[in-house]
């Protein structure tokens, strides 16, 4: 047990979505299939808190996010969120929008690899949650829709105008965020929005296989790579090279790097410990 962990127990049960941990793989499952897993205030808040807490779970090396039923996540619930927001004062609205943005910030700053297993529609906030993940595995029937403008709001929400151009380019991001049209799995793959597209029935197996590969791999190397990818988005080249030089020198002292050399010398596979 690390001496840097608080005395309060880590949360193992969450009321507003499914959460399991098995052999290094944590899975969050949105569980409102009758509403295509539309989000509520409570789901937003719990998801934010879970992702912030998750790196402290010593038995977790990767996170998978998926949805129950026909949808991944259809965004904010029209009745339970949008309807309620009509009653809010400006300060309360800002508190809400900061909370939703905190979910994306937590996803990007979490050092664990995050896989979005998109089993159906990913719309609104659901599309941004998938966008903020590190890997997006799509079922063939999956669809994206950054539909904020279709409800009279800015297409730039929850960091989408920051993340999407960096993934698919400014031109395509402009199209997706302004028009808000549905994007098929095939087109998502074509423009770089999808990591992989698989038949619907194969999605759980594909997500499990990628999660297993990540959970069994050099966790410290993966975590450091994700952190640098996030931090270097706004750096100049010289600063990025210096940060990478310092980081690489540090990791050359890690047990996993020494294990690679020992395994190579012995002609066997490395036994990674994430240390």
What is the overall number of helices? 11
**What share of residues is helical?**
40-55%
How is the biggest beta sheet arranged?
6 strands, mixed
Give the integer mean of the pLDDT values. Answer: 94
Walk across the major sheet and give the strand order.
Answer: 1-2-3-5-7-10
Query: What is the ordering of alpha helices and beta strands?
Result: EEHEEHHEEHEEHHEHEHHHH
From the N-terminal CA to the C-terminal CA, the straight-line distance is 13 Å
Number of strands: 10
Question: Rounded to an integer, what's the Rg over CA atoms?
Answer: 19 Å
Sequence stretches where pLDDT stays below 50 over 5 or more residues? none
The percent range for strand residues is 15-25%
Structural class: alpha/beta
